Give the backbone structure.
Amino acid sequence: MSEELHHFMFTMEHIAHIIDPDGDVVYVFQDPRAPFAVWDDDTISDGREPGDVQSEHTDAADAQRGAGDVGARNQSIVAHSGSQNEVGQSEVRMLVSSKHLILASPYLKDMFTGPWKESAAAASTDAPLVLKGPHCAEQAMLVVMSIIHGKTRQVPRKLPFELLAEIAAVVHCYQCHQAVEVFSDLWLGACNDELPTGYGREAVLRLFVSWVFSDQNDFRSMSRLFERRSRGPLHTLNLPIPPVIVDRIERKRQASVSRILDKIYESLRDLSEGEGACLDNCYAMRLGALMRHMVEQGLYPRPETPYLGISFEHLGWFVESFSEPLWHTYSASGLRLMDARGEGFEDGWKSCHYNATRNPSAKGLERLERASRAYQAEVWGDEKLEPHSCSVMDSILPTIIEVEKSLEGFSLSEFHAESDEEGDQSVLLSFLR
């Protein structure tokens, strides 16, 4: 386990946050200001859509100011909260009560009272205990510990979303959802930030927060976004998002991409085989246009499972950006009319031509020119041409619409039971390490 219990004596000046003056546990965590949930564009290159500039709404300055408000309300905070351990790493110490921790956290209850070796160490002496925990954001841990110990007046009712995500990580790790439930509802209700519309760090944080604090609306919205816009397995940013959620989103992505590719290649095959009752020229032009567009969009030759780099939105853009071949044909009625008019004008033109050539006067040549122009305009005029109605995307678009309707996100209830069955403890332990 990442947590370790030791008996050790600390003077009060070594403790940054005295949550409980009569506390019997000194909680120590490392690197409290280490970067949280890092998004690396170099390694997460398939998370961006074509032309999509993901707007990250996280304001680091606001987050720091919000964190400062929390500290200002805690009268027990020492001016210099950080200290250096023997290897030079920053660490923070809090004096807390084991009784409060046991009541609030089933995880810590097992540690102090269960069969683990840490519980034996806790019972061996009355000396203060040192609980060495994993990396946690300092202000997030301070907020959670204040709630657990009943110091609710100093807990802010509104938080920057970045801090809310850090608190969600602490709550999830220590399984103290019930203890913070009232405040989490307040925080979520006061969060006026618009939901992200693109695949990015903020979207992952939103999904995680909605999962931890059971926000059904945000969870459905974010899972729908990832179903439609992800280009590969969800990048969890090392947050303890249950694998069952990641797997379900990825399966939906692959299934939607596969179904649309099936339809695109079915249309390609029909055009190459001339299926239907249209002209050969029509098949040739549509086949060439479709194949060229597929090559430009990286869809020819056919991508293989798991279709990395391809999202539903990518295929929607494929359809939207396709330029149908534009050409015209004569209607059947137009052809009959041209035949009738053509015969009459041909007779008149021949008569005029005969007279003009026999009598090559200026007036005769002018009549010949007028007759020739009239003949061409009536027989081959643009008003007799009609746009050809065959369309490549008419056969693909219905499938796109059907698939889009199936990508509506998930309900939280679909996952809670599965997470319990698969043992969410493994996710917890991996995060603590």
Summary: The longest helix spans residues 243-273. Confidence is low (pLDDT under 50) at residues 45-88, 421-433.
